[in-house]
Amino acid sequence: MSETSSSLTLPDPTPRKTTFSGTLYRGNEGMWSWVLHRITGVAIYFFLLVHVLDTALIRVSPEAYNAVMATYKNPVMGLGEVVLVGAVVLHAMNGLRIILVDAWPWATKHQRLLFWIVMGLVAALMLYFTPTHLINVFSPIEGGH
Amino acid sequence: MTTTIENPNYAYPARSAGRRGPNLEKAGWIFMRASGVVLVVLIFGHLAYNLLWTPGGIHAVDFGFVGGKLAQPFWQWWDVLMLWLAILHGSNGMRTIVNDYVHKPTIRAVALWAIGIAAAILIILGTLITFTFNPCPEGADPSLLPSFCAEL
C-alpha cells in the first residue's frame, strides 16, 4: 500500500439544531438519506419476496392468480401501493445520488444540495403517479369481481 | 474550526496486504451500482406500463393481462432480467445489513443462509415460470384468458 500523499481539510459541518442533538449522530442530510435508503430497501425486499410468490400463482390457474390479484385491488392495499411506489422512487433517486457522490467530485462536495434535489424529484414523480393510481383504485370495478 | 481527514488509503487499506483471489466485495460494490441503474429503468417501466399507461391500472391486472404480456418474448426477458437483478440487489443489500447489525456468529450464519436460500428459490421459481408459462391453459374459463386464446 502506497504512502499517503494527501489529506483532505474540511471545515467542520454545522449540524442543524434538532431534538436529536447529543445523540451519536446528529441529523444532517447525509444521515437521513442513509436511514431512508436502508428502511426503503428492507421494505422493498420483503415486498419483492411476496410479489414473486403471488406472481408464481399464474402458473397454477387463472382463478388462483385472479384471486390473489383481487387483494391488490382493495382500497386499503391501493393506499399501501402509493407508499410502496414512494419507497421505490425514493430508493431509486437516492441510489442515483449515491452513484454521483461516489463518482464525481462536484457531487461529493454538493451532496447536501443533491439530497434536496432527490427529495424534489421524488415529490414530482409521486405527483405524477398518485392521482392516476388513486383514481384507478377508487373507480368502480368493471365486470364486478 | 477545521477537521483534517487523513487519506484513508494508508491507515485502512481497502484490502489486506497479501490477500489473493478476486476481490468479491469490490465486485459487489460495483454490482450494486450497475444493477441499480438498470433496475431504475426496468422497475419504472414496469410500474408505468402496468399501473399508469394501461387503462384501469391496478384493476386491469389479471390473468388475461399478465398472461398476454408473458406470451411475448420482450416482456419475458424484461421480467426475468428484473427478477434476477432485483433479487440479487435486494439480497446483497440485506447481507450488508445483517453484517452491520448481527454480531452473534450463529445467528449471523443462519440469517445469511436464509437470505441466500430465499434468493436461489425465487430466482429458479420465477425463471422457470416465465419460460414454461402457458397463457391459454386447456379447460380454463375462456373469459379469464387473453383474447388471442380464442383464435387457437
UniProtKB/TrEMBL annotation, chain A:
Family, as annotated: Belongs to the cytochrome b560 family.
Record's keyword annotation contains NAD: no
Protein location: Membrane
Cofactor: heme
Name of this protein: Succinate dehydrogenase, cytochrome b556 subunit
Keyword annotations: Heme, Iron, Membrane, Metal-binding, Transmembrane, Transmembrane helix
Molecular function GO labels: electron transfer activity; metal ion binding
Superkingdom, natural source: Bacteria
One Pfam family named in its UniProt record: Sdh_cyt
Transmembrane regions: 35-58, 78-101, 113-130
GO BP term, pick one: tricarboxylic acid cycle
UniProt key word Transmembrane helix: yes
Predominant cellular place of this UniProt entry's protein: membrane
SUPFAM superfamilies: Fumarate reductase respiratory complex transmembrane subunits
Gene3D superfamilies xref list: Fumarate reductase/succinate dehydrogenase, transmembrane subunit (1.20.1300.10)
GO cellular component terms attached to this protein's record: membrane
